[in-house]
Amino acid sequence: MSEASGTGRPGRYQRSTGGLIGAILVLLLVVGGVVVFRGAFRTTPSYEPEHIDYLALVGEIQQSGVKPVYPASLPSGWYVKDRTFLPGDRPVLDLAMSTSDGLFVGLHQEDASIQELVQRYVDADPTQGKDVSITSDVGSTWESFTDSGGDHAYAAEVGRISVLVYGSASPEELRTVVASLTTKPVKG
């Protein structure tokens, strides 16, 4: 009888660490080539947030009998990128604005305490600064706040609602918004 050929013998090629590393490098080059090839023909879509006509919203709110506090105008290059209005016995108005540098400024008004709004929108443990004088149609004395991240806020009670202007913009930019606040009827 003859011996069984090839049973229990290793394959015809030599296995080595160098061969394994070479195979891994070839695989990485192929995957990298596919990624580069796909990236060369892909375009990243640009996103421009919607610029909201907040004055039209304010006009509609005023027609419903509510007198919201709002900026009469925004500095050049600024726009409102989001808004929320919750009608009812205790209406809430939120305007999210973007500065010309892309920084955030928020305006929130609600029948709630200033402390509650500051803790909700600025920081759970804000630092309260000195009251500041910023003349506007709705008031002249504003409480000031900061948080550990560098955000600032100004708040005041206007009638029975609290108004909060806050965000990552500079204190001067926030003061500009505060100075433009009004409750006058929207023209047009």
Which characteristics define this entry?
10 strands, alpha+beta, 188 residues, Phosphorylase Kinase, domain 1, 4 helices
Structure description:
With 188 residues, the protein is of the alpha+beta class. The chain has a domain at 54-182: Phosphorylase Kinase, domain 1 (2-Layer Sandwich), CATH 3.30.200. It is 27% helix and 29% strand. It has four helices and ten strands; from the N terminus they run ααββββαβββββαβ. The chain has helices at residues 17-40, 54-63, 114-121, 171-179; strands at 70-71, 79-86, 92-98, 104-110, 127-128, 132-136, 139-146, 152-158, 161-167, 181-182. The strands form two sheets. Strands 2, 3, 4, 5, 6, 7, 8 and 9 form an eight-stranded antiparallel β-sheet that branches. A two-stranded antiparallel ribbon has the order 1-10. A hairpin with a 2-residue loop joins β6 (132-136) and β7 (139-146). The longest helix is centred in the first third of the chain and has 24 residues, at 17-40. The mean pLDDT is 89.
